[in-house]
Amino acid sequence: MQLWSNFGERVAAGSGIEELMEDLGHALADGGEDCLMLGGGNPAFIPEVEAVWETRMKELVSDSAALRKTLAVYDPPRGNPSFLRSLASMLRKEYGWDITEDHLAVTGGGQTAFFALFNLLAGTSPSGSLRKIHFPLMPEYIGYSNQGISPGSLSGSIPEIRKTSPHGFKYHIDFSVLPTDETVAAYCVSRPTNPSGNVLDDEEISKLSAMAKKAGIPLIIDNAYGLPFPNILFRQTTPLWADHHIFVFSLSKLGLPGTRTAVVVAKPQIARAVASMTAVTGLANGNFGQAITRPLIEDGTLLHLSQNFIRPYYEKKMRFARAKVADCFPKESSYALHETEGALFLWLWLPDCPLNSRQFYQKLKEKKVLVVPGEPFFFGLGKDADSWRHRHECIRISFAMKDDVVERGLELIGAEISRAYGM
Ligand SMILES: Cc1ncc(COP(=O)(O)O)c(C=O)c1O
């Protein structure tokens, strides 16, 4: 007897990424203390930021009316009305966005927001045709890859790769291959991008936005690392609002992934649909993330923390990690690092390496260095990409860990590159 539905098969019967996360988890558990974990996406523990959460939690616990509201009352599916008002007001003030709380809907983390958005917009349409979420620049966030309920409802484009220095490169959207037909339900980009640390510049976003507008479809911008919070950005950008843009903000990379809180900002029709999805699948959202951050949004603390602690903290770590790479990776090899313009990762390309990224990952695991192989970040590419070697040649390395872990990990990766290329 068949146990699973098609949906059950897709979600519950295992995925490449689940296997990999299991493998990483076991390697970490078996490797104990001396394992060098450069594989995760967990934000760092920043003392000044953690102190603010601690103060806010104490305030909440010592105020019995506020505590009751947070612990014992269901919020509306769209989110806490005061929180929504505060965030809408901050976005109006900071960026001049023409929005109200009707444009906002809280979800249980960004991951849940994308599941809602992808399946509200893409899949089998009322006319029977399959419409897709299209990712204009692959590689993209691994967490999207299994989220389309309808098979084939996620697709991606191969980017242009431009060398920026002997050991540097950067992806750019290849606008000439971007589909604009009626099979596309929306474009989606993470900005900054996980895994590559790429940041689409304002010109690329404007061009993408114009193409989306012309096609009559939304442009989804995943702001997990972006402005105004957590602001893990190392180049200048402007968050641009338009009626067909959908932004997803998350509290996770501020250091609050345990609160599972994100906010979709979109035209009211879409924000309302996301709230309906919450009502159907979860009734309401968790209250804690909203309760902790609301006063911090109102008094400017959240922006202050992002600008003056979170961004500089990661920028320093990024510079440290890139300097270490320059120091200990073999200069005579063809390794290349993507420009690190935002997020928490180095994205390493090993062109023509005799080992593919999974084999390289295994070799590093034997040395107790844990990274993430690049292949699962290249999804939805279809047959065209079969001969594209690049997607087997990259690995993702987090630099959010302690400096000594990053340093020892990178030294061992450098030694493994020399071995792999036979130097
Ligand atoms: C680009 C990107 N989007 C979304 C998410 C989802 O984060 P969360 O569900 O914790 O908000 C992540 C998490 O790592 C991410 O890197």
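qc> The pocket of pyridoxal-5'-phosphate is lined by residues 41, 109-111, 141, 143, 190, 194, 222, 224, 250, 252, 257, 262 (CB under 6 Å).
qc> done
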